[in-house]
From TrEMBL:
Residues that span the membrane, as ranges: 21-42, 62-84, 96-115, 121-140, 160-182, 194-218
A GO molecular-function annotation: G protein-coupled receptor activity
Name of the protein in its database record: G-protein coupled receptors family 1 profile domain-containing protein
Occurrences of domain G-protein coupled receptors family 1 profile (ranges): 1-214
Keywords, sorted A to Z: Membrane, Transmembrane, Transmembrane helix
Main localisation: membrane
Annotated compartments: Membrane
Cellular component GO terms, alphabetical: membrane
Domain of life of the native organism: Eukaryota
Keyword Membrane annotated: yes
UniProt KW Transmembrane keyword: yes
Gene3D superfamilies: Rhodopsin 7-helix transmembrane proteins
Length: 245
């Protein structure tokens, strides 16, 4: 929808219901994905260096499943309430991004807007940076201490996958977070001429790049593509006919 609106200058399939779902996906689902990535970045430390915390079923439920469910549902449910249930005057605009924005911004208390900006977006992005870099440093330091080759390969694949996904967030979301923090510290005009046309647009890139980043990190993908490629070549070979006399 964002690309379509930028291409033609308006929302092609404009309707109030579509606008609400667009706002839900762009905010609730997206923030939920960032929160989930933040937890995954932290959980990698537990799985790699403190695996004794998830040995029993009770520990697995407490350490893995409960946080996973919470971070997956918190932001989507919050924004579902704010967009579909919270009472406010809606005024959708077919020529504006997100149909003009969410109406609750005009009536909700300012403290919630500050909370939302920091807790749902800024802090998770910064924690992804901290957890990812610290995991990489710990992984390098502990590499020589891992005695089993299988364990080393499993940890390496896990770290590569997390690093690729985390780097996608950091590359395209961190500039926006830095500008937001500087503006919040008393410099409201800092980078104001580039944040909307350029930096804010970069935050949409991870949604496009992440599926390919995840595919590249899948174990055995290279071998599967190699087999598929050579299988096709084998299928295209022309076998000469044998003539019997």
């Amino acid at each position: 929808l964002t690309l379509d609106r930028d291409r033609v200058g308006y929302v092609s399939l404009f309707s109030p219901t579509l606008c609400r779902f667009w706002q839900l996906v762009d905010n609730g689902i997206w923030y939920g994905g960032i929160s989930l990535m933040m937890w995954a970045s932290f959980e990698r430390h537990i799985l790699v260096f403190h695996s004794n915390f998830v040995r029993t079923t009770g520990q697995l439920v407490l350490v893995h499943y409960i946080p996973l469910i919470f971070f997956s549902l918190y932001a989507p449910l919050l924004y579902f309430y704010l967009i579909f249930i919270y009472p406010c005057d809606e005024d959708f605009d077919s020529t504006s991004l997100l149909c003009g924005g969410m109406c609750f911004y005009a009536t909700i208390p300012n403290w919630f807007l500050v909370y939302d900006s920091f807790v749902d977006y800024t802090i998770p992005i910064l924690l992804i940076v901290v957890f990812s870099i610290s995991l990489l440093l710990r992984f390098i330091r502990q590499k020589q201490r891992l005695q089993q080759a299988v364990t080393w390969r499993q940890c390496r694949k896990m770290t590569i996958q997390l690093t690729l996904v985390s780097a996608t967030y950091l590359m395209f979301d961190l500039p926006y977070v830095i500008i937001f923090l500087v503006q919040s510290c008393g410099y409201p005009n800092f980078a104001s001429n580039i944040i909307q046309p350029y930096v804010a647009s970069l935050t949409y890139v991870p949604a496009i790049v992440l599926p390919y980043t995840t595919l590249l990190a899948l174990p055995g993908l290279k071998q599967k593509l190699h087999s598929l490629f050579f299988w096709k070549r084998h299928q295209r070979q022309i076998v000469p006919l044998t003539t019997y006399t």
